[in-house]
Amino acid sequence: MYLQIDVGGLFSPQYQNAPRSWDKVVNLLSHLWIPLVVLATGGAAGLIRVMRANMLDELGKPYVETAYAQGLSERRVVWNYPVRVALNPFISTVGWSLPALFSGDVITAVVLNLPTTGPLLLQALKMQDMYLAGSFILILSVFTVIGTLVSDILLAWFDPRIRYA
Amino acid sequence: MQVQFPMREGSVKAVNGVSYHVNKGEVLGIVGESGSGKSITARAIMRLLPKNAKETGGSIRLRPRTGEEFELSALDRNSRAVRKVRGNHIGMIFQEPMTALSPVHTIGTQIMRTVQLHKGLSKADARARAIELLAKVQMPRPAQLVDAYPHQLSGGMRQRAMIALAISCDPSLLIADEPTTALDVTTEAQIIELLKELKSELGMAIVFITHNFGVVADIADRVSVMYLGRIVETADVDDIFYAPKHPYTRALLRSIPRLGVDQGRRLPTIPGMVPDPFSVPNGCAFNPRCIHAVPGLCDTKVPPELRFGSQMSRCHIAEQFAQTEQQEPAHV
Prior knowledge:
The structure holds 2 protein chains of 2 kinds.
Chain A: H1 22-59, H2 62-69, H3 74-80, H4 82-94, H5 97-103, H6 106-112, H7 117-126, H8 130-158, H9 160-164
Chain B: E1 2-7, E2 10-16, E3 27-32, H1 38-46, E4 54-57, E5 61-62, E6 70-71, H2 80-85, E7 90-93, H3 107-119, H4 123-136, H5 142-145, H6 155-166, E8 173-177, H7 185-202, E9 205-210, H8 213-219, E10 222-227, E11 230-236, H9 237-242, H10 247-254, E12 306-308, E13 311-313, H11 318-327
Helix pairs in contact in B: 3-4, 3-6, 4-6, 6-7
């Protein structure tokens, strides 16, 4: 218990074995936000760097100047043109967060005592349970492939040049 | 007009007292080599100078067809007032049609955005206007290509789309910054023909920036020659070619290869290199490379603007050129 908030686990003790109910869902959500913040901010720094580098590349391109020359305001120019183009590499990597979401962050899970697969893999490796560990990694790979596919579909939807190439 | 770039190594005077005017329905050609300040001057008119540029003086005024008068030099880069002028009263065509159009929007969307912004048209009207504009710039199948992305078009078609974008709000002034440099000569000729037609149809003034004298001869009414941030000579297009009064113009004209003439002889070139912009020579900036330079005069005093009718030359000895011309018509 920190700051009067129960942070560990997925449920408070009294809901641990309770039947399904709305109260239980609310209790789940009140526990879920901490791992959510941890997982989200953990990747954010990297993505921000990627986005920043892309934006710096794009802002100097001639089409941005064309957009200014059309008389659009600075805000509309930036959001409608270079951001649209700079998002590409961002979108192509965002699919990799799918396996990360599934496996959870092992450390987050262990620290917060969450029953995700992270600690399970850790356990399996500790116990030399190669069947469990092997199939676990297989599932992760499958998710990576699916995530990449989702990224590709998103990219094609977002950038016409990729659609036709 | 003056524009400087303050830098660690000292400030670069990219535009150093340039002054020109364009009348309604007139084409002013601006010629000069890379780094002579042609594009920076154009960007100053559009208020699109790089953020590190510093304007140290001068004024830019625009009186569009509507009769209002704008003091562009007093407007801030991103002010509401200047955004009303850009795209609306002044259109601009850029050099690289490959990269000057947004790769992720259809050309129709880009034109519609401008029209909707300045003319307040509805989406359907703006689309009709975009198709009409594409037809006007002789784009084939305008109704279909309005939905095309730039990468689906050829270079010439992209430049046509670019022109359609620039003239979408019937601007009073069109600035064309080397619009044909990236195109092959056949397409270049078509684009110039198109610009001439549009000029007489819409009555725009055009500032045509280029480094190609052939293009200038084709399209311009008057020509300004720039060297190192200064206009060294301004004249009607015929005078530039038949009675140039600045040694730089004369040297440039001599170094254009001509078919059938002087076969087997080396093409005359201008001796030396363009000085580095941090250390512009004293006096006339062209004096170290000038074959007519007078020691003690050209390397100490900046030549004044000497006028010969409608012709202006910044050269101490321009009088001599004028006199020899009268004796024997120029042969350059």
